[in-house]
Amino acid sequence: MSLLSNTFAYEGVRPELEAPPGKILIITSCTKDKMIPPLGPNLHQLMPDQLWDEQDDDRVTRNFGELEKYRVPAGQLYRGRQHLQLMQGVELLRQTFGHTVVDVKIISAGFGLVSEEQPLPPYNATFADLPSSKILAISQRLCIPQKINHLMSNSYDCAFFLLGDSYLLSIGLPFSQKPNFPCLFLAGPSSHKRVPRRIPYYFVRVGQDDSIAFSYNLVGLKGQLFKLFAEQVVAPLYQIPSTMLKGDIGARERLGDFLKAPTPQQFLSIVSPFRQSGRISMAQSRALATQSPLFTNLKGHDLKRAKNYGRPMRYFIPDWEDLVDPGYDFMTDTGTKGKVKYRDEVYAHQIYKEPNYDGLLFSKSTVEDGEIKTKLVREMGIHAFARFEKPIMGDCGAFSYITHESPPYQTREILDYYQNLGFDYGVSIDHLIIPAFYPVKEYRYNLTRENAREFIELHRAGGCTFTPIGVAQGWSPETYKQAVAELLDWGYQYVALGGLARAKTEEIYAILEAVAPVLSQDTDLHLFGVARDREGSEMLHFRRLGVTSFDSASYLRRAWMSANTNYFTEDGGRYAAIRISPVYPSSPRVRSLLADGVATFEQLQKLEQEALKAVRAYDRGMLDIETTLDVLLEIDKLEEYNYEQHKALYRKVLEDKPWKNCSCEICSNLGVEVIIFRGNDRNRRRGFHNTHVFYKRFRELMKSLETSKG
Ligand SMILES: [Zn+2]
């Protein structure tokens, strides 16, 4: 490396002096937002039926008559955020290292895989929201998988895929031409299943929490991340110790270093300085919370008790459409024939003799999720819809509009909504203040205050019968305290603290300690999205500090969202569920194994059925643990993925047989099926069991409080 070229490259001039330090391939997708030139009279953009016909010509070279003169290079055609941010990053790399450092290819829903220079006529087509079978058929017609495979035989140092779920489906993973360079897929959590779990495929999770951490709209975040990456490579804005990106070396070395090992970890470490401090993911905050030795420094708190100490504490569970098929046949894996959604499905509280919660929480965005549900709830009212007699709380689901400037609702309409649907509790309209929105924290704080004030005034004037709950948002113990004091002044008897779902347990303690002194004997205090029992008695401490209700779905959802703790026991045990995924032709896992040629479809089906049989035989004492493990792990072995980890987790759960020790309705009826990770009817039922366990532990904790009170 000559000093001269290094300096030039760093300053972004005369990159043509030297070949680029590597070659990057980018695959991105078309966006709905396009730069369409004004078309002549009676001319219209091409529609899907003009492009998705059965002809086997290349749409790119087809003659579209009058529209021909309106062709625009694909790289310039799209105006979506992802594309614009991405191209800015690409441009920066090219200015620094020369044009050939990056190849950009675009998956167009109208024309298939095209290069950025390819002129395209104006068209309006997208894969988003199409059923999978249709996407697969169209992508075949447009030769997308064939063209991608051809591209994969080229030599690159690394490829980035910035594709939404539908577009990922269209490219036919895994590639039949195995690339000899790392492929990084920037995609949402729900797309993880589409990305093969082995070299050279790498999944880089880009989720809602990242959108908050990077303070960037989720729609364009993948492009934004690439742009940040390019900026850090060319001229780092942030220096952090321990990253490979050192400011005292040139841009060429920085890109060269990255391309030596272009892994998700390297990519994320380069962009991570742009994650603002305090904006951490839920998983991170959970990890942090569990690391802190809570009870070593709590001794001093024990004496403090809020004035409302005599009131009971209640657990609400948020509704996330947690329904199962009551007639599901676990032996044949078939559901009830002709089952109608909602009508023929049941909630956890219809399965257990007693509900495993004191109340339900419905957010407006989940109530109005789809026309059918909206209509049903309007007609029946919220209690009849949920088939639930205990209290139901309604809120506006502030997380659904967290990125909006202001909430999309008016107080008047929300009051009518709570009243007409028969809610017992209605929460004022708030706007979340989390670190990503600290630049506008005062605005959001005041907006939340004003809404709460208007809410209780109109509630009184209109003679509403539900109990109003005023929400406090804040960014420090002091601001929460001020907000709560004001709410109580205005006449609220029930207040709630929002924005703490991701806070560390100790941060919550600090806020509650500030708030507790302003509460009176008959004040109720709700904690949104927070439940803890890692250390055992967090809830007890929350209660001492004035909390009388809280909500959380995390015990339920960990049944299928957690990698290794899916089944909880009353004594605080946590177990992994045994994964036996259904084998069907379009399963990404199955396709990947078939593409590798390690087994035939029939063989995989046989392994799946044998795994089910083995677990059931083990449960009946007919099979020993080693044989059971061997059979169970056959597919994992083929996949060479997670084999050792699964073996250890499964051995533990099989040895302990926790499902045999639970007498809850679900476990006594399902037996070993409850521990099998497979489809909604097993997984969600396991979540119901977890909620049962959590609630039982929570009730016992509260009982200890009753007895210690006197
Ligand atoms: Zn159970």
Task: Provide an overview of this structure.
Helix content is 41%, strand content 11%. It starts with a helix and ends with a helix. The chain is α/β, with parallel strands linked by helices. Mean pLDDT is 88; it is low at 1-16, 240-245 and 277-302. The protein is built from 29 helices and 20 strands. The chain has an eight-stranded parallel β-barrel with strand order 9-10-11-12-13-14-15-16. The chain folds into three domains: 6-272, no CATH class; 282-562, TIM Barrel; 571-661. 42% of the residues are buried. The structure holds zinc ion. Zinc ion binds at residues 662, 664, 666-667, 689, 692.
Which spans of ≥5 residues are poorly predicted at pLDDT below 50? Answer: 1-16, 240-245, 277-302
CA radius of gyration is 28 Å
Number of helices: 29
**Sheet with the most strands, sense and barrel status:** 8 strands, parallel, barrel
Q: By CATH's scheme, which homologous superfamily of the largest domain applies?
A: Queuine tRNA-ribosyltransferase-like
Query: Which range does the strand content fall in?
Result: 5-15%
Instruction: Assign a percent range to the helix content.
Output: 40-55%
